[in-house]
Amino acid sequence: MDKLPEIILQISTYFVSAGIILATLRMIKGPTMADRVIALDTFTVISISLIVLIACLAGRVIFLDVGMVYAILSFIGVVAVARYIEGGL
Amino acid sequence: MQWNTLFGSILTLSGSIFLFLGALGVYRMPDVYNRMQAGTKATTLGTMLTLLGIGICHYEWLGQIFILIMFIALTNPISSHALARAAHFKGIPLTEKSVTDKLKEDETAPEAK
Predict the structure, then answer these.
(1) CB interface of A with B, residues 2-61, below 8 Å
(2) Which terminus of chain A is less hemmed in, N or C, by CB atoms within 10 Å?
(3) Which domain holds residue A54?
(4) What does pTM read for this prediction?
(5) How many of the other CB atoms lie within 10 Å of CB of B49?
(6) Number of structural domains, chain A?
């Protein structure tokens, strides 16, 4: 009973990993380029949650900074690819 | 057992279920725009719930986690909007089950005013 929160956090890690696998399958299968970019956006947003979950399970605060930088880079990348698809870059 | 840790972990579990359902929608939906709907809204809510649950587990991390939540709530709709606009102007078609397309109607309508 004392280790119940840790077990719940591990179960949520499994759910998040299954979501990352589904987004990766769509990124491989996607018929157009926009599908792949949407799957990449979903992948990065789910990965931020996985990084913060790993930071909680490992007990190290430095992974939060890693998640912050990852969020900034993924936003800039998705906006750049969207401008490229539209033809303005 | 500390009750804040249990409450935060249950909040994290509900957020991770939202994240899984959003990724399932990205995999299963028939269209670019439907995939974007599933993959943006559900993952925004799921990420906010997950980060808030971990912030309740660890009180001393709550400032950084609040900054991360605000950043995701601000930037995720912007990237989704840029992608939807790019997909529409590229000419990617809607699925056959779609009923209406207001942006195309506005573009092809005669100049009323």
Answers:
(1) 2, 4-6, 8-9, 11-13, 15-16, 18-20, 22-23, 25-26, 32, 34-35, 37-39, 41-42, 45-46, 48-49, 52-53, 55-56, 61
(2) N
(3) 4-86
(4) 0.88
(5) 21
(6) 1
